[in-house]
Design a protein that fits this description.
This protein is α+β, with helices and mostly antiparallel strands. The chain contains ten helices and nine strands. A hairpin with a 2-residue loop joins β1 and β2. The chain starts with 11 loop residues before the first helix and ends in a 6-residue tail after the last helix. 30% of the residues are buried.
Amino acid sequence: MEIPAPAFSQHWTALRHQCRRVTHAVRNIPLSMRVGETVHSARLHELRPYQVAPGWRIGVHTHSFYEAHLFVSGLAYYTTTSEQPVGQDSVVVHGPGIPHAWLVGDVPVLRLVLWFDLAPVAALPADASWPVWPDVLTEAALLLHDAGAGYAGWADRAVHRMTILFSRLLALGAAEGDMSHVAGARESLVKNAEQFMRDNLAQPLTLADIASHVGLSVSSVAHQFSREIGQPPMARLFGLRMTRAAELLMDTTQSLAAIGGHVGMPDPSYFCRRFREHYGVTPGQYRRRLAHHPTDAV
């Protein structure tokens, strides 16, 4: 008689606890598996559950690692190119530097997310339709059930089950990847973040706000900016604020307080001080200089 596989815990606290236990048991252990003629070594960074409300959306973003989504329940849409539905038992895997975006439908979504590294790299291109693959979800449910039960030797079994899980995920695409697209994806991510900054110059943006918009950690966003443009994100934001302030001083007759408000510095004293630090003159001096020498605009 076939024994039914354990279901995922319906208790959010228990599910998070199970994922943390698996992460701690397996993290950074090299897991070897053969896919086709290639032997890969995978290292798990984290296994984490996400419960997302209807209407939740995240813009196009990338990661520097592999990311797998296992959809336990609900319905979402993969919106990078066209609106592709992904629901219960769907499996989505992105390699490093692959742009992707999400939109949750009318019901909440519960998904498990795995972040991991892989050597050698494996190409995992988006299919015309991401597969519905209950076997992968079954393997994940067994893995978490062992972690929750805490039987003797469960950690060793977790390593074995995670190896099987990775093998199934890599079966989506076995060819070694051409990673030449990564640089372009990183550049696109920085441009996306910069546009978000420009659209919200009047807001008190934090690095966490920027990271949330592009779907990366704070440290990853900082690394991408330093790598691509040689500046930290907040330094770039400050430069954009000052550029916009100079434009408003040149093109409008708005007060200094109003211009400061437009660039996220509603305190006139603070705005004047930061402007002078950047340009070497106060906003008022800058405006008067332009009145006499229009070609001196910076």
